[in-house]
Amino acid sequence: MADPHEHAAFTGDWWEEHYQAAEQGGHEPGPQLVAEVTGLGPGTALDAGCGTGADAVWLARQGWEVTALDISATAVDRARTEAGRQAPDVAGRVTWLVADVTTWEPASPFDLVVSQYVHPDTTFEAFVSRLADCVAPGGTLLVAGHDHDDSHAAAHAPQDAAIDPVAVAAVLDPREWRVETAETRSRQVRRADAEVTMRDVVVKARRA
Hints:
Elements: H1 12-21, H2 31-37, E1 44-48, H3 54-61, E2 65-70, H4 73-83, H5 88-91, E3 94-98, E4 110-116, H6 124-133, E5 135-146, H7 151-156, H8 165-171, E6 177-191, E7 194-207
Parallel strand pairs: 1-2, 1-4, 2-3, 4-5
Antiparallel strand pairs: 5-7, 6-7
């Protein structure tokens, strides 16, 4: 598998190699997604950088009509396979796409746009701006990622993979957006035989 420290840019080839080498992961949704989206009335959702699909499937279970895309065909194939094990009404609510979110153009905006732990092949400010453009009026944007003060993230990913809550929120025009959450949260994760404390940056905003 490619060493992330040796790659300044997370290209499509890098991610394809990553997922081909990775073991089949778990299928639990991200805790920040669950915390921030539970209770929102379902509508249309974009899972930008869906990986192996746990978040998209969770959204579908909550009644969202989900477009889930990732730049890695291997990741999307695994996600589609896992979704096929769900009840038909859940599986039928997800559309899976192999696409680069930095260039992909949606047919219409979404009520919810989610991006978690995505390392785009562009500046993060440009990436957040592009995600924001995909949100419909009255819709919600949720971005979660690595805080580089997290020792695990610092050891396994380059500085460019980290995000800052103030920097993410600063991309959003206050005349058009209300930032509801912009903070760093800690969580415990089991890695091998040890508990590891990880720090997540979480930004949630609603479009006027």
